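Exercise 7. Given the encoded structure of a 371-residue chain, write a plausible sequence.
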């Protein structure tokens, strides 16, 4: 009888863990796979310390600190990546997995992919081949693709980009986005939970784009003014990328209802009650399409990502344009079903199946360009 393949899943942020969770469950439940969980990155940062959310769901085998809380700059992120690479190499040496799995385009995923690929451990990459500018996301995502041995893109278009980068077609498996997994089982917030959040019509989730704090502050202030003029608003705090302080300062000065973190079921339940999600999170282009809820996408952070029909873009972050787009969304009828390219909500099981059955000769640790 073949021994189970061990899969080390590296999670570095609250948003990415929300997507990884169903994959991790599918790995843990598969008879031919064993899950090893490595926690790093912003999970370890106050005030939320979302490592507790991870540890409440899965045993944590390794913890790798990366970030210096006093240096949240892009060069600080470069230093954090170096610390992560060292710590993740040690974790992989100790756990000795067959595969290290990462998702997306953050520095935590890049550090894990580099540690695995350089260290001779197969790297599986979920959501490669996408387009979205983020902070340094476009470069990080495609660099991880070139480090990875098993490609698990969310869409057919992303798979074509991976193949165009010289990755052999038989290493590429379209699995859909795990962001859609389990959404149908998450109900709308009940009245009590919705009341506790201020019954918002407009949910604002704006992440930094790596710009100066002052610029991020000004953009967030414009978004909040435009949103407040159109209905009841709840502002969610951003992720921990450089520029976060400016957005948090704008939320604090605005003094309306806000939340530092909503666990995924609560966030999805909120979207089922709200009229519009305003901001620049990938959730607006992926999860919101499946809820469905209207989205006003702000600025360049998601530039290039595939867009379902429920999204209205305001690329120049202009306050008048934001106001018009939010006003139209709040005043429109509730959406019916929305077509999107992100799969059918069974991504976790597909990923586990690929990991359990891949041919090591095809997904060899040696890399070669296909052209």
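Solution.
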């Amino acid at each position: 009888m073949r021994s189970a393949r061990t899969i080390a899943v590296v999670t570095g942020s609250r948003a990415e863990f929300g997507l990884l969770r169903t994959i991790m469950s599918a790995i843990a439940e598969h008879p031919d796979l064993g899950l090893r969980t490595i926690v790093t990155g912003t999970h370890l940062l106050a005030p939320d310390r979302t490592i507790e959310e991870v540890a409440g769901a899965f045993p944590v085998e390794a913890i790798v600190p990366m970030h210096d809380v006093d240096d949240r700059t892009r060069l600080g992120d470069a230093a954090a990546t170096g610390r992560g690479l060292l710590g993740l190499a040690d974790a992989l040496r100790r756990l000795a997995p067959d595969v290290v799995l990462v998702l997306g385009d953050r520095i935590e995923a890049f550090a894990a992919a580099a540690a695995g690929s350089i260290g001779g451990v197969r790297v599986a990459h979920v959501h490669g081949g996408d387009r979205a500018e983020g902070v340094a996301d476009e470069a990080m995502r495609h660099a991880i693709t070139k480090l990875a041995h098993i490609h698990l893109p969310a869409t057919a278009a992303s798979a074509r980009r991976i193949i165009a980068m010289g990755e052999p077609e038989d290493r590429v498996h379209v699995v859909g986005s795990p962001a859609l997994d389990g959404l149908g089982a998450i109900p709308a917030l009940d009245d009590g939970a919705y009341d506790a959040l201020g019954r918002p019509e407009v949910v604002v989730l704006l992440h930094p784009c790596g710009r100066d704090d002052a610029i991020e502050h000004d953009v967030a202030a414009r978004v909040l003014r435009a949103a407040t003029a159109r209905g009841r608003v709840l502002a969610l705090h951003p992720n921990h990328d450089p520029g976060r302080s400016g957005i948090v300062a704008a939320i604090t000065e605005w003094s309306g209802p806000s939340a530092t973190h909503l666990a995924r079921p609560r966030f999805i339940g909120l979207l089922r009650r709200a009229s519009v999600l305003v901001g620049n999170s990938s959730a607006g282009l992926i999860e919101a399409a499946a809820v469905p809820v209207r989205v006003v996408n702000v600025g360049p952070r998601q530039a290039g990502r595939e867009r379902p029909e429920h999204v209205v873009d305001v690329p120049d972050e202009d306050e008048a344009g934001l106001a018009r787009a939010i006003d139209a969304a709040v005043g429109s009828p509730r959406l019916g079903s929305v077509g999107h390219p992100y799969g059918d909500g069974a991504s976790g099981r597909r990923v586990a199946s690929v990991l359990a059955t891949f041919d090591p000769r095809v997904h060899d640790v040696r890399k070669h360009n296909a052209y």
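Remark. DSSP finds 13 helices and twelve strands in the chain. Students should compare their own answers with the one above.
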